[in-house]
Amino acid sequence: MGTSRRVFLGLVAATPLLTRCVTACAAAGYASYSEIYRDPALHEGVDWGRRMVRHPAFDRTAFGRTVVFAPHGGGIEPGTSELALAVAGYHPATLAASGAVQDYWMFEGLRASGNAELHVTSTGCDDHYARSLAAGALNAVALHGCSVTEAERDWRPLPNPACALVGGANADLRARVVSALTGAGISAVDASSHPTLDGTDPGNIVNRTLLGAGVQVETTTPLRAGMFTTNTGAQRKHTTTALFWDFAGAVRSAVAGLEATQVIL
After folding, report:
1. CB of 133 within 8 A of CB of 205?
2. Which fold has domain 43-259?
3. Whole-angstrom Cα distance, residue 90 to residue 104?
4. Helix 19-28 / helix 5-13 crossing angle, nearest 10 deg
5. Looking at residue 8, what is its pLDDT?
6. Which residues pair with 48 in a beta bridge?
7. Which residue, among 52, 142, 91, 48, has the nearest Cα to 82 in the 3D structure?
8. What CA–CA distance (Å, rounded) separates 80 from 209?
9. pLDDT per position as a tens digit, 120-156
10. Residue 32 — very low, low, confident or very high, per pLDDT cuts 50/70/90?
11. 180 vs 264, which has greater pLDDT?
12. Confidence bin at 64 (pLDDT 50/70/90)
């Protein structure tokens, strides 16, 4: 049948006995990107979009070691698209490259509102292009956004509301990112013990690398708010602050430090 997920939920919602089930299903959102791509009620370029770059081998000074992800870009977790571009070596407004560049992939919510419905967990990232990029890289960095409440729930108080929670299965890169951010004056903690934001699941897109490990950086809402003077979808890329560039520079420095230790035979 060609019935969309939205239409199906609407039909079922009309049956009072199933209202609770419908509410739970709707809150769960989409389980994978393929579900979004197949839903005829959603339109690429209107509801959602993807941006990605894979650099040709002859453009690389060495093996393509790191890929940068923003699985919840655009209006889903605002500010993470811009951060991913900067960490990958591109200015978010002009896309001008500066220094070493990395492959990147991002999924973005493009709606004026209601983008949260398009959130797919990182373990549900089944986009073939994203998985291909991860599988061809030694390292991966994923930029995410969370609220302070999400960050502290069932864990511990953050040292600062404007904080980065660094998770992922790559312990070496995780430590490097925490150290680099802290050195740049940005509050950062190792989140590998966090009950929900740890990012250590092998199925997480950031851990689907050649080494089976990457780093997931959760940025709290107050931290991202300080990165833009005009925090809107249209203006973020044009109004980045010193904090934004300090953050991106610190993560890039941590990645470069790790890559320098990786000998490719």
Report:
1. no
2. Aminopeptidase (3.40.630)
3. 10
4. 150
5. 40
6. 44, 109
7. 91
8. 21
9. 999 999 999 999 999 999 999 999 999 999 999 999 9
10. very high
11. 180
12. low
DSSP letter at 133 equals: H
Q: What is the rounded distance in angstroms from the CA atom of residue 69 to the CA atom of residue 80?
A: 9
Distance CA 92, CA 112 (A): 20
Per DSSP, 181 falls in state H
H helices present in the chain, as ranges: 5-13, 19-28, 33-38, 80-87, 128-135, 148-152, 171-183, 221-225, 242-259
Burial class (CB in 10 A: 0-12, 13-18, 19+), 141: buried
DSSP-derived secondary structure letter, 44? B
For the chain, the structural domain boundaries read 7-41, 43-259
| Tokens at 97, concatenated | 């490259």
What does the radius of gyration of the chain's CA atoms come to, in whole angstroms?
19
The CA distance from 89 to 245, in Å, is 11
Structure-token match 């609770």, residue found: 20
Burial of 24 by CB count in 10 Å (0-12 exposed, 13-18 middle, 19+ buried)? exposed
Residue 67, H or E segment? strand 66-74
pTM recorded for the entire structure: 0.88
Cβ within 8 Å of residue 7, ≥6 positions away: 41
Element (H, E) at 241: none
Find the angle CA(77)-CA(83)-CA(85) to the nearest 5 degrees: 120
Residues 133, 183: Cα–Cα separation, whole Å: 30
In contact, 19 and 27? CB cutoff 8 Å: no
Please identify which residue in the block is written with the tokens 């919602």: 13
